[in-house]
């Protein structure tokens, strides 16, 4: 069984801690998928790294974490997400620099891996649209998922989802509880294309739409929220690890919620050493 995450593997730069750690949507997913999927599953990432010291940092972390990787080397900067945190542990998104990912598209080697993948998840956001489009244009026989995140900084977020809805099976979205109009628009797309959309709502739980009725799952309680960075990525890993075999949406929502609860109880989406700034 092969599980492949295609997208951002980079640096999470914590402003409050003045330290870097490996992160990015796809690496966050892959590390947790390696833990949550069956032990014999091969978990891979596909991404591009720059020619800077951050690339060496991320490459070493991927190797240490035991993740199979197809890494394209490009001249330029490795992606960096600048993160701060509220006293409550809620992540504050400060800035994102896509670096070499902004102009990267998958090639023959990457397409061969995608074609053999049983569970594929691709990330999409404003900074990497050509990369995402190249992934969606690559065929794979297995379960296909897309992490759309919060759908911010996009000219037409609903149109983006609608345009690609025929190219994946499960869509993940991280929204606020107050974004009911957006949830309704997404539900209309899911119903029209007969797709399953999962909306994570932080402490308000998660919602599955696209079926005969909405299915809600409460968030798993944690003693203390330390950092919500990567919670959605971990949720997706938990959900897909259950859904791939069972196709039981309620069970999969619970698996995702439990996995996300483990993530928010620590800094970052997985255990990793942090490197203080020089």
Secondary structure topology:
Layout: E1 2-6, E2 10-14, E3 19-23, H1 25-36, E4 42-49, H2 53-64, E5 68-73, E6 80-85, E7 91-97, H3 108-115, E8 119-123, H4 129-136, E9 143-147, H5 157-164, E10 170-174, H6 180-193, E11 196-200, E12 206-209, E13 215-217, H7 231-246, H8 249-264, E14 275-276
Task: Offer a few descriptive terms.
278 residues, alpha/beta, UDP-N-acetylmuramoyl-L-alanine:D-glutamate ligase, nine-stranded mixed beta sheet, five-stranded mixed beta sheet, 8 helices, 26% strand, globular
Summarize this, please?
The chain has 278 residues and is α/β, with parallel strands linked by helices. It is built from 8 helices and 14 strands.
Description:
This protein has 278 residues and is of the alpha/beta class. It has a single domain (2-276), classed as 3-Layer(aba) Sandwich (UDP-N-acetylmuramoyl-L-alanine:D-glutamate ligase). Helix content is 34%, strand content 26%. The chain is built from eight helices and 14 strands. The protein has helices at 25-36, 53-64, 108-115, 129-136, 157-164, 180-193, 231-246, 249-264; strands at residues 2-6, 10-14, 19-23, 42-49, 68-73, 80-85, 91-97, 119-123, 143-147, 170-174, 196-200, 206-209, 215-217, 275-276. The protein has a nine-stranded mixed β-sheet with strand order 5-4-1-8-9-10-11-12-13, sandwiched between helices. Strand 2 (10-14) and strand 3 (19-23) form a beta hairpin.
């Amino acid at each position: 069984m092969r599980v492949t995450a295609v997208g951002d593997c980079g640096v999470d730069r914590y402003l409050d801690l003045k330290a870097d750690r490996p992160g990015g949507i796809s690496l966050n997913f892959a590390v947790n998928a390696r833990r949550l999927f069956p032990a014999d599953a091969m978990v891979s990432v596909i991404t591009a790294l720059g020619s800077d010291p951050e690339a060496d940092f991320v490459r070493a972390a991927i190797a240490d974490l035991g993740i199979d990787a197809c890494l394209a080397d490009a001249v330029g900067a490795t992606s960096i997400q600048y993160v701060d945190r509220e006293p409550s542990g809620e992540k504050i998104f400060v800035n994102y620099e896509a670096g070499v990912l902004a102009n990267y598209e998958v090639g023959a080697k990457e397409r061969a891996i995608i074609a053999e993948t049983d569970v594929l998840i691709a990330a999409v956001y404003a900074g990497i649209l050509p990369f995402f489009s190249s992934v969606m244009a690559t065929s794979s026989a297995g379960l296909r998922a897309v992490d759309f995140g919060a759908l911010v900084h996009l000219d037409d977020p609903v149109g983006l989802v609608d345009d690609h809805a025929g190219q994946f099976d499960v869509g993940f979205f991280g929204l606020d509880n107050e974004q009911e109009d957006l949830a309704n628009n997404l539900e209309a797309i899911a119903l029209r294309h007969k797709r399953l959309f999962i909306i994570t709502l932080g402490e308000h739980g998660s919602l599955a739409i696209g079926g005969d009725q909405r299915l809600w799952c409460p968030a798993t309680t944690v003693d203390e929220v330390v950092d919500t960075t990567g919670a959605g990525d971990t949720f997706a890993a938990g959900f897909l690890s259950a859904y791939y075999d069972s196709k039981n949406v309620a069970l999969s929502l619970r698996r995702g919620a439990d996995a996300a609860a483990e993530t928010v109880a620590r800094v970052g989406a997985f255990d990793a050493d942090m490197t203080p700034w020089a």
